[in-house]
Design brief:
- This protein is α/β, with parallel strands linked by helices.
- The protein has two domains: 133 residues, Rossmann fold; 147 residues, 3-Layer(aba) Sandwich (Rossmann fold), CATH 3.40.50.
- Helix content is 24%, strand content 29%.
- The chain contains seven helices and 15 strands.
- Strands 11-10-9-12-13-14-15 form a seven-stranded mixed β-sheet. The chain has a six-stranded mixed β-sheet with strand order 2-1-5-6-7-8. A two-stranded antiparallel ribbon has the order 3-4.
- The chain is elongated.
Length: 284
């Protein structure tokens, strides 16, 4: 967790603070009371990727409010919104995870909450005073990818209906030069397994870019890449905002040539390289 203090001139400085975890698992955060004497705004940046970080955030906010008598606005930047994929109740007896997480964040009463490339419209709708940084704004920070899209080198592939709107926005950003081809997947509703992937368009001889918000184990993109290769795609690239890659990059060997992601889920230095896949982490 990084905490920044802004002074009256708008200057931003990184705050040092004490943090440790007690043997019983409790999180402890302590700030220097003089640090925020001239602070006009506090900003917290955190990747909320586990429960300990969520508790630490809650403890830190309480400490900051006590120090500032709740007179200094506190903003939160969480690039990856946890539980975003749990934006509906699919089976009776399950929780609506996105709503639970939004309630937790809203209870801390931030003056502003910033997330990156929300999985769906549900998360931004549930959060108070939220700014959702769109995928296209993040992709545009990668000069190499922007150049290839702007000169028409890459054909955009939308992996499913849910990603279609975002993929079209990317094409529109580059004046409609990149062609957009829609893919669709069929799942077994009982097991969740992808049983079929189809491409509605011609990719023969083309370099393609699959764009989506999140990659966990990668099964969707593996199956899609197989179909793209079988249909004649000569180069397959993948742009993912939130690169979890829980099974590593090895699962993409021989299928995906280049992967682009941001540092929303973890810092760039934590990603494990693969000699056969060109990985670019866009540091924001």
């Amino acid at each position: 967790m990084k905490i920044y203090s802004y002074d009256s001139t708008g200057s931003k400085s990184l705050v040092d603070y004490e943090h440790f975890t007690f043997s019983g698992g409790e999180e402890h955060v302590r700030f220097n009371s003089t640090t925020f004497s001239d602070s006009t705004k506090i900003e917290i940046f955190e990747r909320l990727t586990n429960s300990s970080k969520m508790v630490r955030l809650m403890i830190a906010v309480d400490a900051l409010k006590r120090l500032t008598n709740e007179n200094t606005p506190i903003e939160l930047v969480i690039p990856y919104f946890p539980y975003a994929r749990q934006d509906r109740v699919c089976v009776e007896g399950e929780a609506l995870g996105a709503a639970v997480m939004a309630k937790f964040i809203n209870s801390l009463n931030f003056s502003k909450v910033t997330i990156w490339d929300a999985h769906s419209d549900v998360s931004p709708a549930l959060l108070n005073r939220v700014t959702n940084v769109e995928q296209i704004s993040l992709l545009a920070r990668c000069q190499e990818l922007s150049q290839r899209l702007s000169n028409g080198e890459l054909t955009l592939i939308s992996p499913d209906a849910g990603a279609s709107k975002k993929t079209i926005k990317i094409s529109e950003k580059f004046d409609g030069i990149p062609e957009v081809i829609q893919a669709q997947k069929v799942r077994n509703l009982k097991t969740g397994e992808i049983v079929k992937t189809e491409i509605i368009g011609d990719v023969k001889g083309k370099s393609v870019l699959i764009a989506d918000d999140m990659c966990d184990g990668g099964r969707t993109f593996i199956e899609l890449a197989k179909v793209l290769k079988n249909n004649g795609a000569v180069e397959i690239s993948l742009f993912i905002t939130h690169g979890i890659f829980s099974k590593g990059l090895d699962v993409f060997e021989g299928l995906i040539d280049k992967i682009y992601t941001t540092d929303s889920f973890k810092p760039a230095y934590e990603y494990q390289a693969n000699s056969k896949i060109d990985l670019t982490v866009i540091e924001m």
